[in-house]
Amino acid sequence: MSDQAAAALWPDRPADAQGERTETARRLLLAAVDSFARRGYHATTTRDIATAAGMSPAALYIHYPSKAALLSEISRAGHQATLDLVLAAAGAPGGPVERMRRLVEDFTSWHARGHTVGRIVNHELHALPEEEFEVVAELRRQIEEAVLALIRQGVASGAFDVQDIRTAARAVTSLGIDVSRWYTERSSETPEELGRRYGVLVLRMLGSTA
Amino acid sequence: MSDQAAAALWPDRPADAQGERTETARRLLLAAVDSFARRGYHATTTRDIATAAGMSPAALYIHYPSKAALLSEISRAGHQATLDLVLAAAGAPGGPVERMRRLVEDFTSWHARGHTVGRIVNHELHALPEEEFEVVAELRRQIEEAVLALIRQGVASGAFDVQDIRTAARAVTSLGIDVSRWYTERSSETPEELGRRYGVLVLRMLGSTA
From the CA atom positions of chain B, what is the Rg in Å? Predict the structure, then answer.
């Protein structure tokens, strides 16, 4: 299990008036991640999730009206976390080469560390309720746009040499996302090593000579 | 639906003594592909598949003892088809550059045309019965090995310049496989165009100057 990454999405909060409610919601989200990953979303029941969190189904419903509500929160959090790291890399000091290297390193290592969450948020999109799907689709567009804009910057400055910017951007995000399909804790590289290697491959793909 | 690609896995046979049995099995396989793609494997029942094929569940059981047997046959056929095209490209006339270009073009366009089957065979691996999983894992190893061997050939001949051969091979297959996650009939490129563009990107990634 790589729930280290899932746990990082919903960090422990200091105890306050909301403390207990937050902690219960957090336990349910982590139990839902684990259950969806094991059985797939469709075959998971709210009872499975409640049991994994050590609660009754009734206690679950106090926090989430349905398993779709849990999937929605997991999907939003996962997409927001990856958008945040993409925007941080795209706005970092340095030129397009340094920014793209950081973007690929961070995006790749996130999908390796968070392969359990990554699989759920990328493979269960069709199961989201329509309004939630729209929210997540907008986050995905922003990720794609940030990658596109960075490639355009690099082409404009002469750092990159790319014939088809849209296909190149698609390949960059696709390589990172697919890591969550195949990466396991038994993989030979650490998430950080994989990120560095993918950074080198992507810069070559973009025609960088740096 | 891109069941053009699924249909190609189980071509119509000329009518003979076995003709009717083969045609029924084929209808069931195509109905299973469609049902698994819509609902996910776990949430699909044998009744769903039988209904989609216009049969009774009893008629289904004459051909397949379980939905796992259908998944197994779909998964074997999909993996065998991709292994066949990988081996054909790796053994084609020309040097490593021409062979790799053809490999990426064919592997990519197969996963675009066959995105429905591609998603099932790549995302439902964990649902296979253990012995079937071993068969499919062996086909996957052969695909990975063929890509590795071709990269090694190119490095030995000086056509490629790759630091980490295993990671590069992983990136090549990952890019192609992930096409089945995101490609739809609404995508702006045809499967063949996408294949050509990915061929260019991969050759660059491998340090080819051709």
Answer: 19
Burial call A8-22: b when 16+ CB within 10 Å, e when fewer? ebbeeeeeeeeeeeb
Residue numbers in A near B198 (CB within 8 A): 167, 171
Do A174 and B170 lie within an 8 Å CB cutoff?
no
Chain-chain contact of B182 with A188 (C-beta, under 8 angstroms)? no
> Nearest CA to CA, how far is A61 from chain B (Å)?
22
**Which residues of chain A neighbour B182 with C-beta distances below 8 Å?**
170, 174
Pure H helices in chain B: 3-9, 19-39, 46-52, 57-63, 67-90, 96-113, 115-123, 130-157, 165-182, 191-205
Contact A178/B174, CB-based, under 8 Å?
yes
Interface touch B178/A182, C-beta < 8 Å:
no
Q: What is the pTM of this model?
A: 0.92
Measured between alpha carbons, how far is B201 from B210 in angstroms, rounded to an integer?
12
Mean pLDDT, consecutive 10-residue stretches, chain A (210 aa), reads 70 61 87 90 92 94 94 95 97 96 98 93 89 96 97 97 95 97 91 97 91
Q: Cβ contacts of residue A86 below 8 Å, gap of 6+?
A: A103, A106, A107, A143, A146, A147
Q: What is the ipTM of this complex?
A: 0.90
Interface test with A, best of B67, B115, B189, B204 (most A CBs within 10 A): B204
Residue of chain B whose alpha carbon sits nearest to that of A194? B167
- B128-171: per-residue pLDDT in tens? 999 999 999 999 999 999 999 999 999 999 999 999 999 999 99
- The whole-angstrom separation of Cα B85 and Cα B181 is 20
- Contacts of residue B115, defined as CB under 8 A and 6 or more positions apart, other chains included, come to B2, B5, B179, B180, B181, B183, B184
How far apart are the C-alpha atoms of A103 and A91, rounded to whole Å? 10
